[in-house]
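> example.struct
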């Protein structure tokens, strides 16, 4: 199976969806526990949620493999995203609910993690980096939107209920502050969905690694509470009634990025 699906666009916008994949090769899945096979921590249906992006001229790259195989939004050296906080690894061994992903003794060792990095992690990032470079060469600017979702309540990582829309700019380092402010202003035009900038989620490895405002590459992550578009309990069903309420706002965010770049 391909590691990712890439649809090149003709605008400055690149949408990355690194956690929507659910595939695990049989040689890996055979070592999963029941919790691992459930894949509860998938960014379920995010590729469907953003299926309008190509119509805006965006390039879209979406992973096909589960984050339990390898997490594409972690550093390849496995350094924690949030030092001092609870973090999951490059090759996660526990779920967000602290359940074991692997049966005892079957966790990936250093050699297996290195193999997965070369087999799955590196091809995705090479393709993403090349698409950003192509886009910037063509337009003089590249806008990276890293699309994620998570359950609205995950006590392991945050107390209480997460805001519905969590914009991350690496605390202002990954994008022009004017662009971040514009996206916050878009969110503020409505009262149906709560929002925050650089709250609990400030952007993962992708946002931090590729966002280089001084070089014309502006990166934003959106971590969206899953309750806004799906059932958060198994079988994790997509809810069109909820999704159709939030999708216009997501489209407005992507459109605002293009408008800011003068390409809307």
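> example.seq
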């Amino acid at each position: 199976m391909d590691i990712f699906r890439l649809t090149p666009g003709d605008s400055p916008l690149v949408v990355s969806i690194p956690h929507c994949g659910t595939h695990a090769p049989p040689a890996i899945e055979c070592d999963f526990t029941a919790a691992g096979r459930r894949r509860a921590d998938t960014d379920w249906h995010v590729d469907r949620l953003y299926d309008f992006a190509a119509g805006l001229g965006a390039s879209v790259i979406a992973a096909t493999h589960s984050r339990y195989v390898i997490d594409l939004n972690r550093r390849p050296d496995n350094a924690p995203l949030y030092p001092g906080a609870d973090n999951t690894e490059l090759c996660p061994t526990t779920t967000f609910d602290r359940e074991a992903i692997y049966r005892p003794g079957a966790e990936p060792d250093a050699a297996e993690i290195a193999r997965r990095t070369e087999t799955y992690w590196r091809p995705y990032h090479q393709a993403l980096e090349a698409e950003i470079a192509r886009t910037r060469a063509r337009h003089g600017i590249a806008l990276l939107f890293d699309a994620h979702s998570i359950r609205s309540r995950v006590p392991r990582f945050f107390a209480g209920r997460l805001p519905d829309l969590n914009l991350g700019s690496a605390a202002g380092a990954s994008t022009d502050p004017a662009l971040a402010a514009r996206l916050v202003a878009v969110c503020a035009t409505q009262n149906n969905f709560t929002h925050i900038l650089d709250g609990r989620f400030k952007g993962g490895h992708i946002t931090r690694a590729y966002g280089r405002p001084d070089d014309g590459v502006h990166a934003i992550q959106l971590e969206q509470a899953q309750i806004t578009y799906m059932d958060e309990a198994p079988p994790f069903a997509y809810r069109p009634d909820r999704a159709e309420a939030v999708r216009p706002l997501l489209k407005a965010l992507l459109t605002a990025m293009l408008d800011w770049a003068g390409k809307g």
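> remarks
Residues 110-139 form the longest helix (30 residues).
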